[in-house]
Design goal:
Length: 477
């Protein structure tokens, strides 16, 4: 059973949209003296944060859920302008702009600094809705090559370590595709492997051909990135043999972590995040986990066993900017999307890691979100600009984003009105009003401080909160 800082049972009223936006801006702008504001244009249409880049840190680019159209017949009916608009998937010019903006943000003036690296969390394809014309393997290969080439066209010295998303298969959410992994393996290897900078593990063909997962060592920083195939963990996939593949992957994760040498660190990337589903909390008022219970339990045990070696985990799929942390267990960040299909603004992130030669080896110091206000630029017929939107370190006023510091600050969600509204702001800023209704502080606290469904429900019960509406029939967590 979890221990709450104090009990909160009252439901929060739903504030008017204007008041909520004003409050969120007030909270965000008032958090740090180091944060300055800058307007996008003279139109004063929106406000962003401008943050000085931390010195002596490695910058890691993180981008997810590109969802690019490559079939004119599949584009949404209300698509507007060259760069598109919210509630539609990404046009190719928007993808070009997002990827090039990511590389410009990662650029360093120092020729002696080793190249940074990029984590791509999957879902290159638009949200495929036709059942009469499934994508074939060649279609997937061509589409991924098209998206992957946008990375290499910007730099062939920056490793891009990618993971498979549920829309990266010929049949969405289905793993029953004969010999699919060997067809696409070379694309993922070529994108990640840069001589002298990043090398894929010797067992790449064995693990990727078998289950679509692999590891890459970023040589200058002694960081190993484990690219997980979370489709085998997710309840969205119910294919025969899933458990066998999931168990094999879990054994592989434990082996890779066990073989890390002293001072080496690991990062997890995957498409489906662990934790309670944000979609079901907001849309159906129910608690459902993203992963199967047995899988989640085993993964948590492995993470806890090796947590001193793990920097963090980064995941996509949910198109929003959140984190989940369980004290003494694990932390997972969910990354916002490039695609604005669910009402969010196109985004990418930069993670700042401490360099082993400068600070404690490989700590996650900050996670900064860049986004563009797409509807404004579409209406104005101007080229969108990606600007700093938020920084977890500045918003939460903590020194780093470690398991301990995030656990401590999460407890303040229901102790402090300011901290509560910061979390609401981070969840609301990516979505339009209809997608993200107001929930009481205790729900935000239990969601953020829980990875498993059982722990989430225990957290609510400890606060005397009525949980019957949150119990749904499911074999998920």
């Amino acid at each position: 059973m979890s221990t709450l800082p104090r009990r909160v049972t009252a439901q929060m009223p739903r504030l008017p949209r204007v008041l909520r936006v004003a409050l969120c801006v007030f909270v965000v702008l008032g958090r740090s003296e180091t944060v300055s504001t800058s307007r996008v244009t003279a139109d004063n249409d929106w406000t962003t944060l401008s943050l000085p880049a931390p010195t002596n840190h490695l910058k890691v680019g993180i981008i997810s859920d590109i969802h690019m159209y490559d079939d004119a017949d599949e584009q949404c009916s209300n698509l507007q302008g060259k760069y598109g608009n919210v509630q539609c998937d990404s046009t190719e010019p928007l993808v070009d702009l997002a990827v090039s903006s990511l590389y410009k943000t990662l650029a360093t003036d120092s020729k002696e600094t080793p190249a940074p690296f990029i984590l791509y969390l999957g879902d290159s394809s638009w949200h495929f809705k036709r059942t009469d014309k499934p994508k074939d393997i060649q279609h997937i290969i061509d589409l991924n090559n098209k998206v992957f080439k946008k990375f290499t066209d910007n730099s062939n010295r920056t490793p891009v370590i990618a993971t498979l998303g549920n829309n990266d298969f010929p049949l969405k959410n289905s793993l029953n595709v004969t010999d699919f992994y060997p067809y696409v393996s070379q694309m993922y290897r070529s994108l990640a492997e840069v001589p002298g900078v990043a090398e894929v593990a010797e067992d790449f063909e064995e693990t990727f051909h078998y289950g679509g997962y692999f590891s890459v060592k970023v040589i200058p920083y002694s960081i190993t990135v484990l690219s997980l195939n979370t489709l085998y963990f997710s309840d969205s996939v119910d294919d025969r043999g899933r458990v066998e593949y999931a168990n094999s992957q879990l054994k592989w994760i434990n082996r890779v972590l066990s073989e890390l040498k002293e001072g080496e660190k690991a990062i997890f990337i995957g498409h489906h995040p662990p934790g309670v589903s944000l979609y079901y909390l907001y849309k159906k008022n129910g608690a459902i986990g993203q992963w199967y219970k047995n899988t989640m339990d085993r993964f948590t045990n492995i993470y806890k066993k090796h947590k001193e070696k793990i920097i963090s985990g980064f995941y996509g799929h949910c198109h929003t900017d959140i984190f989940n942390v369980e004290r003494d267990n694990m932390v997972a960040f969910t990354v916002p999307s490039v695609s604005p299909v669910y009402g969010g603004q196109p985004s990418f992130q930069i993670a700042y890691l401490s360099q082993p030669s400068v600070m404690t080896s490989g700590d996650l110091v900050d996670l900064v979100t860049y986004h563009t206000w797409l509807d404004y630029y579409t209406r104005s017929k101007k080229v969108p600009q990606f600007r700093v939107s938020s920084s977890w370190r500045n918003l939460l006023q903590i020194g780093d984003l470690t398991l301990e510091s995030l656990s401590n600050i999460t407890s303040k969600i229901i102790d402090s009105t300011t901290n509560f509204y910061i979390h609401v702001a981070m969840k609301n800023k990516m979505y339009q009003e209809s997608f993200m209704p107001m929930l009481p502080p205790i729900i935000h606290y239990c969601f953020t401080s829980s990875i498993s469904k059982n722990r989430f429900l225990d957290c609510l019960e400890d606060s005397n909160y009525d949980v019957k509406d949150f119990v749904l029939n499911s074999n998920r967590l």
